[in-house]
Design brief:
Elements: H1 20-32, H2 41-54, E1 64-71, H3 86-97, H4 101-109, E2 112-119, E3 131-132, H5 150-169, E4 174-180, H6 184-196, H7 212-233, H8 242-249, H9 252-267, E5 270-273, H10 276-288, E6 296-300, H11 306-313, E7 318-320, H12 330-348, H13 352-355
Parallel strand pairs: 1-2, 1-4, 2-3, 4-5, 5-6, 6-7
Helix pairs in contact: 1-2, 2-12, 4-12, 5-9, 6-7, 6-8, 6-10, 8-10, 9-10, 10-11
The structure holds nicotinate mononucleotide (NCN) and 5,6-dimethylbenzimidazole.
Length: 364
């Protein structure tokens, strides 16, 4: 980073890698359960993957924790979202009052939902129980300048680290990061395009609902932002550096999510990814600390077209594909019951020996 502040020590720690021994043991255990081998399909694979990530013979998707990061985006000044940015603040109130989709889902699941403002334009004091970690009143307009200073970028990663550590302290086994931020599909697309060195066209989508010429305008704005930063850096490839990409074209909530994913990977807390913004944050985390992706499961495939590109770059396949494009952590929350089911099966089914059921085929 230009004029980089000192990187804190935690950012230099490596992500923990899933345990090969636990993976092997979990695979063997699945074949001892009273079912034809492989007959529970992806449910088996999910339990095995969690066992490896958690270094445990008893994979667990509970307790799960949802940390929802909110922030505003300077790029909205360029007309890239059909929604008024004031909705970021209004939805924060809705989250804590229990009326938003993720609020209902969290209640239904019995999960804690924590709302963390890392950079909304909320004027004055925030209502309880929103956690106030505001770094700036939104990012700067990335079309004209870097979205964040190096210090703000590190502060956003730090806000994510803190959330992961709070989760660890309450014994959380599975971490979901949600987000809210009008304009953040533009930041997610710009970040993905920068990190993947891909044209904006395949990564920009409708977001909350842009169509036709307005969608083409969004694409042009993001392409122009990318050119601006590549030119400023003096070399086209330099924007693929995650320290540059994150702060120049990312978002405060996106970088906080990346910090949380990174810290979860270091702590061995499994992460369940959500939609497009979450995917872009995951790609940033992976580029900042290679190996972070090994700690991740993908809850769903968003209807935002760029999501597929981003998750395939991470080598992840979605548990669900329901045409959702809400964000907030809602796609991950929807997949959580399936993960719970996968764990319950792995941990509680009888083995052939326990149940006195004959194992193996009948052919000589
Ligand atoms: O998670 C997704 O895949 C997703 C796809 C489209 C929109 N969103 C949500 O919509 C908001 C951003 O949309 P936009 O059009 O303002 O960039 C933000 O609050 C996101 O949570 C989220
Ligand atoms: C109402 C509304 C709710 C949201 N939740 C996440 N992004 C959102 C965008 C809008 C517009």
């Amino acid at each position: 980073m230009e004029n980089s502040p000192q990187q804190p020590n935690w950012l230099q720690e490596s992500p923990a890698q899933p345990s090969l021994t636990h993976r092997e043991r979990a695979l063997e255990h699945q074949d001892q359960l009273t079912k034809p081998p492989g007959s529970l399909g992806e449910l088996e694979a999910l339990a095995v993957q969690l066992a490896a990530i958690q270094n445990s013979h008893n994979p667990a998707a509970e307790p799960a924790h949802i940390a929802l990061f909110a922030a505003d985006h300077g790029i909205t000044a360029e007309g890239v979202s059909p929604i008024d940015p004031v909705v970021t603040q209004q939805m924060m109130t809705n989250f804590v009052n229990g009326g938003a989709a993720i609020s209902v889902m969290a209640r239904e699941l019995g999960c804690e939902l924590e709302v963390i403002d890392v950079g909304s334009r909320w004027p004055g004091e925030l209502p309880q129980p929103i956690l106030d970690r505001r770094i700036a009143p939104g990012t700067a307009n990335m079309r004209r300048e870097a979205a964040m200073s190096p210090e703000q970028f590190l502060a956003a990663l730090e806000a994510g680290r803190e959330a992961a550590e709070r989760a660890q302290q309450s014994g959380v086994k599975l971490f979901i990061a949600g987000e809210m931020g009008i304009g953040n599909t533009s930041a997610a697309a710009a970040l993905a395009a920068a990190l993947l060195e891909a044209p904006a066209a395949g990564l920009v989508g409708p977001g909350t609902g842009l169509q036709g010429p307005a969608l083409r305008h969004k694409e042009e704005v993001i392409e122009a932002a990318l050119s601006f930063h590549r030119h400023e850096l003096g070399s086209p490839g330099a924007l693929a550096n995650p320290w540059e990409a994150g702060r120049r074209v990312g978002g405060l909530e996106i970088c906080a999510m990346a910090g949380a994913y990174l810290r979860c990977a270091q702590l061995g807390i499994a992460v369940l990814l959500d939609g497009y913004i979450s995917g872009s944050a995951a790609l940033l985390a992976e580029r900042l600390a290679p190996g972070t992706k090994e700690n991740m499961l993908l809850g769903h495939c968003s209807a935002e077209p760029g999501h597929r590109r981003v998750v395939s770059a991470l080598g992840l396949s979605p548990i669900l594909s329901l045409g959702m494009r809400l964000g907030e952590g809602s796609g991950a929350a929807t997949a959580l019951p399936l993960l719970r089911m996968a764990c319950a099966i792995h941990n509680n089914m009888a083995t052939f020996a326990q149940a006195g059921v004959t194992q193996g085929d009948n052919h000589q």
